[in-house]
Design a protein that fits this description.
With about 100 residues, the protein is of the alpha+beta class. The protein has 3 helices and 4 strands. A two-stranded parallel sheet has the order 1-2. Strands 3-4 form a two-stranded antiparallel sheet. Strand 1, helix 1 and strand 2 form a beta-alpha-beta unit. It starts with a strand and ends with a helix.
Length: about 100
């Protein structure tokens, strides 16, 4: 059987194809913890960036903590406050331009 030149990551991993459409060869690919085929370069970058992102993943049950605590623009709402819906204003502006 003739080997394909371009294939999916799975085909490249199983040695059924030579490289992916993006040019990744088998030596550029690896399996992550979820057994998903990923590029070695991207996985290395993600592992290095994990220390910077760890504070964002604090337990949501801790007082003052949460998934989004520490990220600008994601302040917690005060109890009893409501979030206003934007759908009404969008629908009004759309209907104004319809003919």
């Amino acid at each position: 059987m003739k080997k394909k030149i371009i294939g999916t990551r799975r085909e490249v991993w199983d040695r059924e194809a030579e490289k992916t459409a993006g040019g990744l060869k088998r030596e550029d690919l690896t399996l992550n913890k979820q057994k998903k085929i990923v590029s070695k370069r991207k996985q290395k970058a993600a592992i290095e960036n994990w220390d910077e992102l760890r504070h964002c993943m604090a337990s949501p049950f801790k007082k003052g903590g949460g998934r989004r605590s520490g990220i600008p623009g994601t302040a917690k709402e005060k109890p009893g406050s409501r979030v206003k819906s934007r759908s009404r204003s969008k629908s009004r502006s759309r209907s104004r331009y319809r003919k």
